[in-house]
Design brief:
Two copies of one chain form a homodimer. Chain A is mainly beta. Chain A has seven helices and 21 strands. Bound molecules: molybdenum atom (MO) (2 copies).
Amino acid sequence: DGQVPVEDLHDPFENDPRRDKRLHVHTSRPCNAETPTEGLGAFVTPNDIFYVRNHMWVPSTSESDHKIVVELPDGEEKEYSLKDLKDNFESTTVTATLQCSGNRRKNMTRESRSTKGLQWNVGGISTSEWTGVRLRDVLADAGFPVDEYPDEVRHAQFMGAEAYGASIPIDKAVDRRGDVLLAYEMNGKPLPPDHGYPLRVLVPGTVAARSVKWVNRIVLSEDESSSEWQQRDYKCFGPNVGGNPDWSTAPAIQEIPVQSAITSLRDLSPHSQADRQYLRLHGLEEDSVAVEGYSFSGGGRRIVRVDVSADNGRTWHQAELLSDKGKGAKAWAWTRWRWVVPRQQAGRWFVVKAVDEAYNTQPSDYDSNYNFRGHLTSSWHRVGYRPPDV
Amino acid sequence: DGQVPVEDLHDPFENDPRRDKRLHVHTSRPCNAETPTEGLGAFVTPNDIFYVRNHMWVPSTSESDHKIVVELPDGEEKEYSLKDLKDNFESTTVTATLQCSGNRRKNMTRESRSTKGLQWNVGGISTSEWTGVRLRDVLADAGFPVDEYPDEVRHAQFMGAEAYGASIPIDKAVDRRGDVLLAYEMNGKPLPPDHGYPLRVLVPGTVAARSVKWVNRIVLSEDESSSEWQQRDYKCFGPNVGGNPDWSTAPAIQEIPVQSAITSLRDLSPHSQADRQYLRLHGLEEDSVAVEGYSFSGGGRRIVRVDVSADNGRTWHQAELLSDKGKGAKAWAWTRWRWVVPRQQAGRWFVVKAVDEAYNTQPSDYDSNYNFRGHLTSSWHRVGYRPPDV
Ligand SMILES: [Mo]
Ligand SMILES: [Mo]
């Protein structure tokens, strides 16, 4: 799993770039690598440590050669070069978090039982400022009636140059407030090769597997993508369902549920000058523990509360939510939070859970939310704590 | 709480209607009454047993006298009679479930601790086919640019003839796929007095408290409604927060989280002819238990899976989802489900939890999701079972 058979002498991975050494690599062919802790502490992740989740190789394509074809429901096609997109459509920037559906799978394996897939810890998630043109505008230009389309057009399928494919519901594709982009920049720079250079789809609030990289074809259809990543694989089943399910009985993952992780636990001592200042900001003078992390919910649903516990969920407090401002019509980016608690109150386990604006919550236990593929692990994140040897 | 002081000789409740005897009455002045089990088993609730949640009296108003005023951000007003609405706008029918934010509060009190508010069991929820005109169309007619409105217009406030008020985000109010109505019919009949005759707002996927009844004024504003039901009261806090919170720190409830309840547990015996037939449909020949209930999620998010357990959550099965078809752009109505399990597998507690299309789940425990007002109780619903004396 994760390895693609290489069946001829030509190495399809020959175009893969060198990667930053700080990434935590799960597999290199295809590349699957986590954002390190330092990247999880920033609101916007630096491009070179944005997590990488490739299903195959990085295809060879360039800004001057790349074309994208839009196929309308009646079969008519319209082709755009990168230059066409940049010259003829208004550019937009959206701050959006992408999360791999396998993020925190390792937590599910540890707290429940074996899961099938790469064992991502909490770094299968990153945030970027994406710049591109609105898919809605391009579809309208191609002749699709974006506000009054017929009922039988139900999905927008995306094909990548390497062979990956996926789809999203048409109403998300054309939603004025959906902020779906054909993106060519991350944080003001051209997309890095690993992230879809020269063009990718960006579907905010939706599992990253639908933000197809190296996109060169869009098909508006009655049907979802026929790819295995749409029809199988990226789906969740009940805790009782084994490894050979009827895949058609579960929906393909699109919007994702409310999620949180602790990314840092740090001892603070009043004997350190730097710590003393930070402690004072929080009204404390004693040995303490600083806790930081992220919370995020799909569908543009804002995080409204983060509950943290220093005693494995017996008692709760509210973390301070950082006021980072993202761009876009909805809350497409994660919320960073922090909490400082006197060490005297710190038990063996720190725990976090969040609430989104629809008052959706995270489940406490892993067993009753287990799914054999370990997708969308979002039970309470629990991190062990040991006081420093004094 | 629940009682309104009557300070003069005129009885404001004199216009309150007689109610169906089958409703489970919590308070009568104002009327708060639950739908009985028979109403929870139908996809569409009969009008006379739709749950009643009145904050005050039923105002005296008639179809011929009733007017509604739309106040635009610049202060300009436009008035419509019922006849204007019916004559000049296309009518639409939407199948939508409304749920009181206090539904299942009694469960939270029992499983965690004391909560402030009426102790609704599982019947503070009902479903209807609502007919009316689109709020979007009326606002457009009144001169509001529904697709390109300025950023500073953020809320649509609604005022009821009795004095109640609430608001919803403007993007929900004008969303083409939001199905917000000015409704004048329930299940093909004029609204009953308890449900807003002659006109109410219907906000599908949103807590019922925003579907203002007897509506006579709409104000488009930068601000939410200033009513206590918007600014206080209908908000949730952390499990650690007591009865005197800083209300401004929590958002007013709008979309609601995924929810489920068991509405019926019934013993089936192969010695009864009727039961035998039902058992056979489920491939069973032995003494069994039939379980039925509803699941629902806010925001039009479809229910994709219902997990049921006959042993207090130790092992899980998937319930059969009934294929009722509602009208409207999204899944605004509840999903009915059923399950039949051999009595031999039935333990002391039956449990249900559901998953919506964003793969949001219900929390298992009540303590860590406790809020002192007992709003939006959605932890696993647990019902005791006793086998019949044989
Ligand atoms: Mo993924
Ligand atoms: Mo309510």
